[in-house]
Amino acid sequence: MENSIQFGVVDNLSANKFKRKLERKLNRYEKLFENEKFTTTRNSCETILICNAGLVNGIAREVIVELFSSFGTLKYVLMVEGKSYCFVQFHSLNCAEKAFHDVQGRITLPQTNGTLYLLYCDKLPESINDYDKMPPGLILLPDFISDEEETCFSKYMTPTSDTALKHRQVSHYGFEFRYGTNDVDVAHPLDTPVPEEFHVLFDRLKDRGLLDNQLPYPEQLTINQYLPGQGIPPHVDTHSPFGDVIVSLSLMSDVVMEFRDTNDTHLPVLLPRKSVLLLTQDSRYGWTHGITPRKLDVIQTKDGVTVRPRQLRLSCTFRWIKPIRECDCQFETLCDIKINKALASQNPSSVERKHVHEVYDAIADHFSDTRHSPWPRIVSFLNSLPHGSLLVDVGCGNGKYFSLNNPSYQIGCDRNSKLASICQSRGFQTLCCDCLYLPFRNSCADAVISIAVVHHLSTPDRRLKAIREINRILKVNGQALIYVWAKDQCRDKKSNYLRQGSKHKEFDKTDVFVPYTDAHTAQTHLRYYHVFEDNELKDMCEEMTDVRVEEYYYDDGNWCVRFRRIS
């Protein structure tokens, strides 16, 4: 495969020692999976459960395919959302046995640096063994245009310097699609309408009964150019400005598009070259769609798994503009009108109480269990502090940035009493408080960190107030480091969120409700986030005249600022 991954081989152990260690591991995993919807076995089967590699620990499907396809033809690869395990199924029992023997306890993956452990499985979980399922209302029409039409349509990709995005080139017709607000300005049509050559697509769709004969030709067209490795974050075409049907035409290359609903059901759909896709009904309003940045797509068919390199691709998206901005859909967390009404009908504190404070009360234990790896750049900042410094962590969570061996004095505070108690049980000095009213005197801290907190505040004034509070408790020459979620999750294709099959669904807007599924209870909760545009956090910090921004950067899906109090 292109961009071949280097797998590690575990150092040789004595045969007896290896067997004892392996037996302990397998016994542990068998007990762990007793209550799952599949049955493990020590008897040889075509299906193998990879016990400790999955989407949760950052393992992509391509990695699994590359490793196991070297042993024979794969029939199925199943990556399970929210789990740290996955499945491979071979056409041949002999191939499965060879893979099982050669990988079991002997191979490491570079993403986790952990040795792989395997169990046989009698069959794949039936409820998720659907390779060709599509979201309700999604219509895919392969070979919808001819080669000559593809050549004709491709010529309308004519990007200019002012229409270049960070990650791809784009051309607009009829109206410019505004990526900041994900709509159009109907008062300012472009001089270039949707070219008449495209009308044949809609005449053809009407002839097949897929569009209303009374529907006019679409008023807006966006053509995106994707180079191999480029993608687009999960999003839903905004409900209020655009009509009930979105039409997409794929030119020059196939691609896999990822669809997810509000219950986090995940369905990858292959869009072949020269195909037309219609998003209608639920697939239009209730499912996000996106393209994961990568150079290879793993295609699952009834005949097995294949790997297909991406080529340069053009995507033509056609939209009808609503004369009146309204929406009567049932998808509250994906509808811009319903989100705006919900935010407008409640005061900021009630939004945060329902969609931040109450959620963290419910998920605190599971949240703590999944937060244990400090981020390197934050650790580097902490290690740079002089011995004896006083560090305050505003929104300390489970205290993963504290250390009992740290030469600094550490105080944590969190709005959630359960998380604060977890910190205290680990021997850390922690108290409960609101980040808008820190119970510390002026100019007391040498350093302050606030990681993934400010984005939970629901108005600009409250976000700025929290930053001012951080600055208030800093000594002159003290430093603060603040992390918030970025709206642009595709800025770095290595984003941890993307590697995990991102659950951050509504990043086409800045004020969003993001589902969080608690694996302990299987309940899904909606957390409020304000996801930040580029420079937004930096500009807020620079509103304070007594600070100097020392560093501003992007780190794994976050905008980050380090500032110093200068007076």
CATH class of the largest domain: Alpha Beta
SS element count, helices = 13
Query: In percent, how much strand structure appears in the residues?
Result: 25-35%
Rg result: 26 Å
Q: How many individual domains?
A: 3
| Sheet with most strands | 7 strands, mixed
CATH architect. name of the largest domain: 3-Layer(aba) Sandwich
Distance between the amino and carboxyl termini: 57 Å
User: So, the CATH homologous superfamily of the largest domain?
Assistant: Vaccinia Virus protein VP39
Overall mean pLDDT stands at 86
Question: Which structural class do you get from the secondary structure elements?
Answer: alpha+beta
Shape, per Cα inertia axes: globular
Low-confidence stretches: 493-506
Provide the helix percentage.
Answer: 10-25%
The CATH topology of the largest domain is given as Rossmann fold
Number of DSSP strands?
28
What would you call the quaternary organization?
A: single chain
Biggest sheet: strand arrangement: 22-21-20-23-24-28-27
What does this structure look like?
- With 567 residues, the protein is α+β, with helices and mostly antiparallel strands.
- The protein has three domains: 8-128, RRM (RNA recognition motif) domain (Alpha-Beta Plaits); 138-342, Jelly Rolls; 348-565, Rossmann fold (3-Layer(aba) Sandwich).
- Helix content is 23%, strand content 29%.
- The protein has 13 helices and 28 strands.
- The strands form seven sheets. Strands 22-21-20-23-24-28-27 form a seven-stranded mixed β-sheet, with helices on both faces. Strands 8-15-12-19-10-9 form a six-stranded antiparallel β-sheet. Strands 2-7-3-5-4 form a five-stranded antiparallel β-sheet.
- Helix 8 (348-369) runs parallel beside helix 10 (417-425).
- The N and C termini lie far apart (57 Å).
